[in-house]
Amino acid sequence: MPAAGGETLQFRDPETAEELTDRLEALMADIDEPVTVMHVCGSHEQAIAKYGLRSLLPDGLSVRMGPGCPVCVTNMPEVDEAVALAEDGCVVATYGDMFRVPGTERSLADAKTDGADVRVVYSASEAAEIAREEPDAEVVFFATGFETTAAPTAAVLTDDPPANFSVLSAHKYVPPAMEVVAELPETDIDGFLAAGHAATVTGYGLFEPFVEEYELPVVVGGFEPLDVLLGLERLLEFVRDGEAGLENAYPRCVSEAGNTDALETMWEVFETDSGEWRGIAEIPGADLVLREEYAQFDARERFDVDPDVGGADPLTEDCLCGDIMAGQADPDDCDLFGEECTPQNPVGACMVSSEGPCKIWLEYGGQPDL
Amino acid sequence: MTGTGDPDARGVDGTDPESADVERAAAESADAEAADDSTIAAEDGDDGPVVTLAHGAGGVRMRELIDDLALSRFGDSADAGSASDGSADLDDVGLAAMEDGSVHALPGGEQSLVVTTDSHVVTPLFFEGGDIGRLAVAGTVNDLAVMGATEPLSVTCSLIVEAGTPMRVLERVMDSIEATCEEADCRITTGDTKVMGGGELDQLAINTTAVGVVERGSHVADAGLSAGDAILVSGTVGDHGISLLSEREGFDFEGDLESDVAPVNDLVAAAMAAGEVTAMTDPTRGGFATACNEMAGAADLGLAIDERSIPVAGAVASAGEVLGIDPLSVANEGKVVFGVDPEDAEDVLAALQNHPKGEDAAVVGEAVEDHPGRVVLDTGIGRRYLSEPEGEQLPRIC
Are the C-beta atoms of B284 and B57 separated by less than 8 Å? Predict the structure, then answer.
């Protein structure tokens, strides 16, 4: 009878986990001072929380989540645009994560409650399919996510999409955000655990310039518990040796060059632009916007999107999402966490997405001292 | 950065498969007791606050609703029987205890009456492994059984039907109710039928109520655990929830995903005959995780659970990984979580495993003094709290 813990799985072997934990202990003893590692991926946080990895980490080693949840860093005005389009009669298709993310005043779920046509889809191609099946409707795909979802969005746009289909891009590009976080004076990071899945698209070579400029180690890690522990071990080795460096600790999936076809398609359709990441900062080059050649499929070009949000107070005044995304606060530092802010009634986006640290901490019991 | 790398990976409603909502978006299939998704986000209408799907999701909101509307009126009656109310007769169980059913003294004082009721809505009405009729009988019979009353004296059945529902659908449901009653050795003794207009209800809702008797003082409460008691589960967990979620989301997993819906009063009787069962609950909405948390909370003890010893069927574990849903957090409809005197644990386990509905039973942990009210899960690698699921999970983008 296989158990839920999946102990038979190669990458969840408790004995190997113990060996890796022992090596982390030894490395921390050598380093002899606190070390903070940042990961930039909700799936890393999932693995850490679900398998209780923080209960294994040696004293002094802190692993924090940075801006690794694309839903969480989607800016409120971007949600406002999607809500406005839905209220103006477009069919707005989006990923389930975005459905309840509050904009300045309202979420797409609110719009749907009032009769707008909002559909939850699982891929860009499914949104395009809706447009094909309903030629009289204007179907807008509210596109969110990093490289792993931006490339599929691009693939749909390069594959003869229907004329009544358009994209409202809130796609984000991670490397510039890592630079901003590395530069934030309040954020004291000794190394980055980079996300293996985005690296399957981008390749790990992407991080080379970052490592050189910021003199910080970057290790690309996978998402099984042993992958995470192995990534941490490599990072601590860099820290012990006082070296910046780049290592691929997820070679079974990630190559240096990445998926060149996907990248080519992505850059054919998208270019980078400066954009505000919710709660963090205006980040140059970290938003992915449609190139002019694809303007006819750009919802911002096709429609006069003018969200009227009045002078309403943002919902997030007491919400620490921004600090949490910047790696400067933990979910349970927030007064709203688990009280006024729950997955059923989220105040901030970090409580909405399954990639959001607040949702993850609530689901797996936070960061207990066990 | 992004998640599991598969843009098509779907997370879905983690807590309650008995949703009446047919939308494929789990964002909208938040819960059972409402079919109108226009209530999802509406918190404040012109007439003040309104009921939302979250109020039916079995989490904090539902408890608030019950506190505000029901406990404020009926929670402190003389026979409340709440463990927190030392003045009450502990052989009685009332609403305040929030148990699987209520317990009241019968005239003569030698026996107690046990009553439980449940309303059932599910989409689709007929699913792999069962249907709404089987669910309606099993759910109520099982609630009665985990109070210790394993021989239901009487079961009521009320149908609310949407006009336009094909008669053959009702016939199939009634056939299933009949067969399930036979299996549970009980009878429908009274009932009621109402018909509502088309669109006013999603096909069919069923309420069942069951009554039974136990010897005075011998009912089994959630709160009955003592430190050191073994925690047993009667079989694989997550089957019903993962199966329905997969079906509803349109996944066709090659394999054997089907609901475990079944009356288990005979299994409970076998366990109780084999040793001292100190606490019992059926891990329905919110799954094994919620059942453990309820037991821990009611007894003000901690539970230490070994994740690797929890039986999960291979197909359920795989589907759960793909869906991004933890099998420990979704409903079961034919399973029981037991607290057992440690000296009797082996005997009770053997009795369960010798029963056709308990072959996969396992000892999964124990009650401890530490971390009262919380459940600590040893994942085999590290340790974490096993929390009560908070409502539904949204499909994720990656």
Answer: no
